[in-house]
């Protein structure tokens, strides 16, 4: 735990300083302190810090350089690994919201995936005020949960483990949990989920959670839960397969966002749907050229078994629409094409509703977690035409993120607002508060604070 709320202990002041404040701070400091700041070459650069000690060499204050304005989430995020392992308290005139953002960033900066490493747990702690505890801990817990789920290797995160995670979450918030497993997927008409996962020793399943008052607006979250993706018979090269433990990143995001919705007791009736599979290879693996009749009745010719995410999602989206929700958001590590378009750090947004797309985009700007919309360009749907079925699941060529979204769009009712988020869910470079590995992307933008469900 990177925080401390125990007021019995003394805390060292942690003082944010912007460049415009530095001269005044130095001029009001004791000569020895002012000289030390100068000798330390502290210029209040964003993220830079300076340790201040007394005449006995005891640490009495930490200065940290911050930007003049904007989101404070990452202002302190680089400090936990750099400061002596003692207790600190934020000392500033920031608003309560800004302080909460900085506290969340501190927690994320303390994050380490240490499930399989015995680390020294002695760490720097930041005081967490009682009146901020609910908000800070909700975000800290949810985002760390997303990271942990993605970082867990596939031998510790198969469909049955994902099931346990969702069931535990349901128990924590008194929600209802259900799952459909193995061949029951066929009897209950989820053929594409079954087809993708049937080759594995780890049975495919459709996981669901419901929570809240059925009279409230209904929000449905759908997450791609491909716990490992070999590519199937269209097998990936080893360099592309290496990080495919992260292919359940959409499911991890859904679980994390559901946790936020329930922790904040948002006035929605929440449904979570996670098709959880292991896209493995065996004698029973689905094949290129197979034709599958989906839950919706649309027939799909398998052009590429490595385009499996849209297959498991399409049955889940069909189920979601059958229940006529007011809003559907799905999350998926769906296409490399989206990464080519926007890089690894900006999720791609598609939507059938202009106002919903603008709301999500605007929230992403405000929260400085950019999500960028690409068009559902219908002329590209011709790339998904098949001579033996209603459509194919994939075709090589340009615009792969768009054609994947167009595929999913076929399974969403036109009168239900829907957003599709195609994201990396993984940091490929290290930044303060954002270590290499699994990452929650856009959950601040998708906290629903600025998104209104359809009336």
What attributes characterize this protein structure?
Leucine Aminopeptidase, subunit E, domain 1, 20 strands, Aminopeptidase, 13 helices, alpha/beta, 455 residues, nine-stranded mixed sheet
Give a short synopsis of this structure.
This protein is of the alpha/beta class. It has helices at residues 19-27, 31-39, 96-110, 133-151, 159-172, 184-187, 191-197, 238-241, 249-263, 309-322, 336-342, 354-366, 400-409; strands at residues 3-4, 12-17, 49-53, 59-65, 87-90, 125-127, 176-181, 205-211, 217-223, 225-229, 268-279, 291-293, 299-301, 327-332, 348-351, 372-373, 391-392, 418-422, 426-427, 437-438.
Annotate the secondary structure layout.
Blueprint: E1 3-4, E2 12-17, H1 19-27, H2 31-39, E3 49-53, E4 59-65, E5 87-90, H3 96-110, E6 125-127, H4 133-151, H5 159-172, E7 176-181, H6 184-187, H7 191-197, E8 205-211, E9 217-223, E10 225-229, H8 238-241, H9 249-263, E11 268-279, E12 291-293, E13 299-301, H10 309-322, E14 327-332, H11 336-342, E15 348-351, H12 354-366, E16 372-373, E17 391-392, H13 400-409, E18 418-422, E19 426-427, E20 437-438
Helix pairs in contact: 3-4, 4-9, 7-10, 10-13
